[in-house]
Amino acid sequence: GLDATVEVRNSHITALGFCVSSNARNESTHGINIRIENSVLESEHVNGYCGSAVMMNVPGTLYIENSTIIGENNAVLARGGDITIVDSKLFRPYAVVGADESSYYIDKDWGDGNFVPMATLLVGNRSASAYQYPVNVTLKNCTITAYADGAKTVYLYGNAAKENGATLTYDAATVISPTDEAVDPVIVGGGCVTVNEPVTSAAAA
């Protein structure tokens, strides 16, 4: 509900779809505060691409610290709100079955929920009418990886209106490193997007 609080501490959660998620059904679900600390959240890999371990798709706050987030479609899907991730690891270790990652929701508006592009960390929104609010993501001392060929680590797309755009800020201690060196560590698809720090990757080191 409105301004609800969810806390996950010292836990190991495994789920087929979402481990922790907001709900964008209406404004009564806005203002949620999610806090995840010292935990492992894993979206199971079961012959599909439905899993986004953590999804934030409304205005509110999401804070993740000292945790490991493992996803199939996404480890963290940040479609709205203010998200801070500290001292954490985001992984996408699976080869996706049943979809072509290079084209899946890349050239069209995103759907509801996690009918969105595949990336370990997905930031922003692509829609003319839905999810019209800003998203701001800050990373501090994090590691973000994707293991399969062609798999994206960080992908951003911003709403058309600047006030509803997507912002990513990360420090020099954060490593964004796709296993496939042909894939850029941070990819901006379009829209109003701000990336405040230079790309740091294992390949560039």
What is the strand content? Answer: 35-45%
Q: How many helical elements?
A: 0
The overall average pLDDT, rounded, is 90
Order of helices and strands: EEEEEEEEEEEEEEEEEEE
- What is the alpha-carbon Rg in Å? 15 Å
Strands side by side in the biggest sheet: 1-4-7-10-13-16-19
Number of domains as seen in the coordinates: 1
> How does the helix and strand content classify structurally?
mainly beta
Low-confidence stretches: 198-205
Biggest pleated-sheet summary: 7 strands, parallel
Q: Judging from the principal axes of the Cα atoms, what is the shape?
A: globular
Cα separation of the termini: 45 Å
InterPro entries: Pectin_lyase_fold/virulence
What does this structure look like?
With 205 residues, this protein is an all-beta fold. It is built from no helices and 19 strands. The radius of gyration is 15 Å and the shape is globular. InterPro entries: Pectin_lyase_fold/virulence (IPR011050).
